[in-house]
Amino acid sequence: MTLPNGLSAFPITPADADGRVDAGALRRLLAPLCAAGVDSIGLLGSTGSYPYLSRPERRRALETAIDVVGGRVPILVGVGALRTDAAVALARDARAIGATAGLLAPVSYTPLTEDEVFEHFATVARESGLPLCIYDNPGTTHFTFTPALVGRLSRETGIIALKSPAPERPEIAAHLMKLRETVPAGFSLGYSGDWNAVEALLAGGDAWYSVMGGLFPHAAMAIVRAVRDGDADAARALDARLQTLWSLFREFSSLRVMYTCAEELGLCNTRPPRPVLPLAGAARDKVVQTLRRLDLH
Q1: Mind listing the pLDDT tens digit for each residue in 176-213?
Q2: For the chain, what is the mean pLDDT?
Q3: Is 162 contained in some domain?
Q4: Helix, strand, coil: what percent of the chain each, to 5?
Q5: Catalytic residue of the set 50, 135, 209, 259
Q6: Is 178 designated active site?
């Protein structure tokens, strides 16, 4: 079976002002994901604020998740770091604790070349022994994976998947076809960007890496089930209902919106890691009003 597949739900990582993970709050966020039957959990992704957490706190978050999940749901965990040796250490931690795979982004300060990114990924895969998902997130890393580079990496032992930002809807099918031509059979091609994810799944994408699914897994799973049932009209209707949420993601960033929603729902009393500031005033009111209208929880 191709892995990841279906819905990969990406929760926030509650932590205090000193960056210490709130294990109790994280448990409250993770338990509903298991109950909803998500296909995997994307722990410590960008929504999970992995770059802001120390190595011990990343371990704490993963240990908590492993305890909550109890082997019922695969866990993909962020192992990105500026230095290759640091990413190797994080990936080794993840493997030892029990993660299914690592999410590796080409985090950098100095812009990286394709050869540098290839060596970075190949080294982490080889030296950690943890299966890796390529985490293509050019909005934060300022590096975009070309199909050619994805093809090279897909043939390296231990590199099993790609998490790609979904292009605009008319371009998704062609984008996916071009990637399919470069990778071996069984290599998972999935998409992030919740507002275009339905069309990516309908085009044949293997996985939806979902921010919304990290807090509202039942709503996200309803879309995935409709796609699996071949009911494109139902999937698109469910997606259309969420357009106001997608607009908030675009306006304020999905990270800030999810923190606001989690706090409003009483799941945790935490704020994004500084220097990111929580939404306030009219912006917060807009998110809260939309949350109440949608009634997703």
Answers
A1: 999 999 999 999 999 999 999 999 999 999 999 999 99
A2: 96
A3: yes
A4: 50, 15, 35
A5: 135
A6: no
Does residue 101 lie within any of the structural domains?
yes
Question: Whose CA is closest to 86, among 61, 108, 64?
Answer: 108
104 lies in which domain range?
6-229
| Non-local CB neighbours of 91 within 8 Å, separated by 6+ positions | 79, 102, 104, 124, 127, 128, 130, 132
Catalytic one among 163, 191, 209, 286? Answer: 163
Tell me the per-residue pLDDT of 110-139, one tens digit each, with 9 for 90 and over: 999 999 999 999 999 999 999 999 999 999
Indicate whether 163 belongs to any domain.
yes
- Domain with 208 in it: what CATH number? 3.20.20.70
What distance in Å separates the CA atoms of residue 219 and residue 212, rounded to the nearest whole number?
A: 9
What confidence category does residue 1 fall into, taking pLDDT thresholds of 50, 70 and 90? very low
At 2, is the pLDDT very low, low, confident or very high (cuts 50, 70, 90)?
low
Both tokens of 225, joined, read 């089930």
Q: Distance between CA atoms of 297 and 181, rounded to whole angstroms?
A: 39
The answer as to whether 123 is a domain residue is yes
